[in-house]
Give the backbone structure.
Amino acid sequence: MKRTEIKILLNNTPIGTELNIRGWVRNKRTSKNVAFIALNDGSTIHNAQIVVEIAIAETINFSKVTTGASITVIGTVVASQGSNQQIEVVAKSIEILGEANPDEYPLQPKKHSLEFLREIAHLRFRSNTFGAIARLRHSMIFAVHQYFTQNGFFNIHTPIITGSDAEGAGEMFQVTTLNLNQLPRNEDNSIDYSTDFFGKITNLTVSGQLEVETAMAGLSKVYTFGPTFRAENSNTSRHLAEFWMIEPEVAFNDLIDNMDLAEDFLKYLIRYALDHNMDDLLFLSDRLKEEEKSKAEELRSMELIEKLKFVLENQFARISYTEAIEILKNSNPNKKKKFQYLIEEWGADLQSEHERFLVEKHFKKPVILTDYPAHIKAFYMKQSEDGKTVRAMDVLFPQIGEIIGGSQREENYDKLKRRINELGIPEKELWWYLDTRKFGTVVHSGFGLGFERLMLFVSGMTNIRDVIPFPRTPQNADF
RNA sequence: UCCUCUUUAGCUCAGUUGGUUAGAGCAUCUGACUGUUAAUCAGAGGGUCCUAGGUUCAAGUCCUAGAAGAGGAGCCA
């Protein structure tokens, strides 16, 4: 008999239907005459309740039906006598597909710590929490492509191995086929890369932006959605060495258009989650509430679904860096010297505590900060007439901080070239990038959205290692 | 990389001022139970107290170094 997914079973299967369901046992409860199996196949957060009469149990080695075992059940859909589910399946036959030795199987029908689940990342797809995260993650991936498709964008696969080290977005992982125990040397003892696979130094990409800008200058509306690698020694709950980034780039868009795109895009994704993943969101919300019980009242965050709706219904605040400095300068924490880094003058880089103050205390909603001092931002950003700032924008979210970083790009060939030289970036590595400004240059803008940071916000999880299946962080590349 | 905290049973955690044989809940196993909901009840088994040194008559407990994990900071998405 063909398998019926548990999601289908629970949605609209009429009483009396005979069907086959398969999955992994979450829990088994036995009494004298009847046993109950909670079965999950990952199609939904919900389990199917299998009712096993003693006569059926006796046909198999029922003691081997343990938490974690995989089974296939043929049975009949009936109205449930219990109160926790509408329907259940009375088994006619059960077959054990794969046993799970209870002495070795680490998942129990109880709440596990997220740290423990991380240590068994290969099994945590079978937990409620990570199952919900995985389904939500898929939904968000799909929604990203759907949003851009509906809005006339084209997806561009930018290279993962890059030959340019001029992107300036952090430490890179080197890619080489050279024998590290026996490196070929030049006469001056430097390493001879001419015999390396690409004949030069290559690294894993830290951003697809420069390449995707070349696609923009031809297709107008493009985006990348790919893996990104940063070899920073970052040990925080919001950094990964390998993460996924979405980078739209749009010709003829200025900074205002860019902000409109970022806000519309984020709201679309959040709305998509609310429309398509309510079961998982409700579970994650309950989980979060449970977790927050142990926190002091003032440290608790808004309930997850309420928070998502709140972001949807409110305009993001949009202020310039200069305005932000004024707000911070006159803020209570600054006057009372509560900030670790006090705001004294224009030009200072904003610290996490300042961003959090603006988002969580002052505006109490997402904030887009624009027009930062040029000296704290990347070379490619559009230089303003004031000569001091660039047309940059960061979208700041509560708890997460910077979820998007973007800008209008400098489209003027001479200005861009001058900035590259000022910063000592090797110009000859960027000849192809400069060509986009040399031939038919256009005003254009784009941004980078950290996909896992979006996942943090939408799922309400607090550690980025719990929203990606196999996190890569310093000293950890297991699985 | 810096600061702070943590590391005791399969999991989550107690463990007093350094003092007998290191405990609990859950899980596992055995049994009981007329339909359970992380079932319930009774019993049993289960320990390199993170590692290596040190102090002491005596160390899970104190000291030093290291490892791993967490929170915060920096870097950023």
